[in-house]
Design a protein that fits this description.
The protein is α+β, with helices and mostly antiparallel strands. It has a single domain, classed as DD-peptidase/beta-lactamase superfamily (Beta-lactamase), CATH 3.40.710.10. Helix content is 44%, strand content 11%. It has 13 helices and 9 strands. The chain has a 5-stranded antiparallel β-sheet with strand order 3-2-8-7-6, sandwiched between helices. A hairpin with a 3-residue loop joins strand 7 and strand 8. It is globular. 54% of the residues are buried. Bound molecules: glutamine. The site of glutamine (GLN) has 11 residues, from loops.
Length: 308
């Protein structure tokens, strides 16, 4: 009989060590609804193929997944378009902040990668062309891969972002001027704001990431959703672009493909081995969770679950 290591004590220890960092950094308030979140929240969840889900802290409390949603929309668009996707969006790290417009002009409206806002807007546009109600299809897909039926949008957060989303609106209009958005700008923006407003817990996010851990299949869905080589491509983009202009530093310190969101979540995945999600709302200068990044660093060093 094989015994499964209980990782809970290690996760608890990591949270204890990073807790002082929750007092530093800044909770995102450029989306006013997000500014109300309690900076003391701190949770972590680990999924292992042969061990199930291990949790510590506020791992079962839902938060705004924000840009972590870009992993799921990328998977959906990749499934529909295959490699034709790369004609609409690149796969190079941008080295610029997530909401930067600067490269779009010289790149003629083709965003550098699907994880900066500009790229995610193009991906949302693709989904608007592929589905009658793209936002509902995104929600349905996330419910399906996580096996959790009551995951939902937070309409207040979506509305708050729509009311203050001047930069995303500028970006979408700019991309449209190059012909790289097909649907009406407002439809794309509404889809994007809604996908970002979806709320999930760390435990639910690692369950959704089983799809990547298991190379395109999941216990909750009978069909194969991605091929193993597509999974490697998605996770390689997470490694190089998932934490924006801090992706090099994340690879150096942590060594895990990861996607962050301004709600304070970071989802990390190693295909074949594990998924790890951490949540702490206060962000560093790049918009990545400060305590969350440090928690991933401590855990990867101690557990040896790095891709390097
Ligand atoms: N909804 C946020 C925005 O568009 C997502 C950004 C993020 O999580 N990095 O600004």
């Amino acid at each position: 009989m094989t015994t499964v290591t209980d990782f809970t004590p290690m996760l608890q220890q990591v949270l204890e060590e990073v807790r002082p960092l929750t007092l530093q950094g800044k909770v995102a308030d450029y989306i006013p609804e997000l500014g109300h979140v309690d900076r003391n929240k701190l949770g972590i969840a680990l999924y292992l193929p042969d061990g199930g889900v291990f949790c510590a802290g506020d791992a079962h409390e839902r938060f705004s997944i924000q840009s972590i949603s870009k992993v799921f929309t990328l998977i959906m668009a990749y499934r529909r378009l295959g490699d034709a996707l790369w004609q609409r969006v690149g796969r190079e790290p941008s080295g610029t902040p997530f909401n930067s417009l600067i490269q779009l002009e010289t790149d003629l409206g083709i965003p550098r990668n699907p994880f900066i806002n500009a790229g995610a807007l193009v991906v949302s546009d693709i989904l608007c062309s592929q589905y009658v109600n793209a936002h509902l299809s995104i929600l349905e897909f996330i419910r399906q891969i996580s096996g959790v039926d009551d995951i939902n949008f937070n309409t207040r957060v979506a509305r708050s972002e729509a009311q203050h989303g001047y930069r995303n609106a500028a970006m979408a209009n700019f991309i449209k001027s190059f012909g790289n958005l097909k649907a009406p700008v407002d439809d794309v923006l509404q889809t994007y704001f809604r996908q970002c407003s979806i709320e999930m817990s760390c435990a639910e996010l690692v369950r959704a990431a089983q799809l990547l851990v298991h190379y395109g299949t999941t216990p909750d869905v009978s069909e194969t959703l991605l091929t193993p080589s597509e999974v490697r491509r998605v996770t390689s983009i997470m490694l190089t672009c998932g934490t924006y202009d801090a992706a090099g530093d994340f690879a150096f310190r942590i060594g895990l493909p990861a996607k962050s969101g301004v709600g304070g979540g970071i989802l990390a995945v190693v295909p074949g081995r594990m998924a790890l999600c951490v949540w702490s709302p206060a962000l560093d200068y790049h918009g990545n969770s400060l305590a969350g990044g440090r928690a991933l660093e401590l855990f990867s060093a101690r557990s040896g679950f790095s891709v390097f």
